[in-house]
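PROTEIN DESIGN WORKSHEET
SECTION A - STRUCTURE
LENGTH: 66
TOKENS:
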């Protein structure tokens, strides 16, 4: 039986898969930060303004930035 992965393990696997490290978001201080209509349903599907995001690369980029 497979054991569920923790968030840290998921992020580590994504970094290896994409060959990238997470950006230093803790250093960011944007002058303007507005609310966006970004949602993730219970199946793990991502939506922007109620439209599904079907490109896996875009989902990964949002995951990294959020």
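SECTION B - SEQUENCE
RESIDUE ASSIGNMENT:
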């Amino acid at each position: 039986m497979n054991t569920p992965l923790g968030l840290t393990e998921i992020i580590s696997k994504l970094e290896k898969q994409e060959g990238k490290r997470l950006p230093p978001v803790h250093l960011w201080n944007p002058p303007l930060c507005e609310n966006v209509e970004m949602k993730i349903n219970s199946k793990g599907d991502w939506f922007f303004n109620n439209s599904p995001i079907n490109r896996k690369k875009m989902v990964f980029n949002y995951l990294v930035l959020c």
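SECTION C - NOTES
DSSP finds two helices and three strands in the chain.
The longest strand covers residues 38-40.
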